[in-house]
Amino acid sequence: MAGRTQFHDDDDEPFVAPERLGRPATTPEEFEKQVVLDAMRLAHEQILAKTVSSQVLTHFVKLGSSTEQLAQEKTRMDIAVAEAKIEQMKQADKMQELLGEAVQAMRSYAPSGAVPEMDILEAGEEFEAIEQY
Are residues 52 and 21 in the same domain? Predict the structure, then answer.
């Protein structure tokens, strides 16, 4: 097991981290993950050997702070809100499309001239005005 770092979990039972997981990186994202993993391992080894620099130690202390955890949670929530807004816009576009199809269907059932010509965009605007009430 030479060259491998032993870690301890909450139960204080040691386990060994693998030196390299799987195949070499094939994408920039995989390469970045491998580099970060290597840097984390090196930092951990330095912490255990008590040779860690103050900058590295400060970095990991800040990562564990409640302020950093709150900032990360806020970022996750912001992402969730953005995703919800995107989904809502997609649903609004689909509703606009369905409304246009409904207006076209109504026109096909009405006698000619009985339904005034209305642009689909106008129908959507009327729908949005109704939704507000």
Answer: yes
- The tens digit of pLDDT for each residue in 90-113 reads 999 999 999 989 888 888 876 765
What pTM, to 2 d.p., does this model score?
A: 0.47
* 58 and 76 part of one domain: no
For residues 78 and 116, membership in a common domain is answered with yes
The whole-number pLDDT of residue 125 equals 57
List the domain range (segments joined by +) for residue 30.
1-63
Q: What is the DSSP string of 69-122?
A: HHHHHHHHHHHHHHHHHHHHHHHHHHHHHHHHHHHHHHHHHSPTTTS----HHH
Q: Is-contact 41 5, C-beta < 8 A?
A: yes
Contact 58, 44 (CB under 8 A): no
Q: What is the pLDDT of residues 11-46, one digit of tens each?
A: 555 444 455 556 788 888 888 888 888 889 999 999
* φ and ψ of 114, to 5 deg: -75, -30
Domains in the chain: how many in total? 2
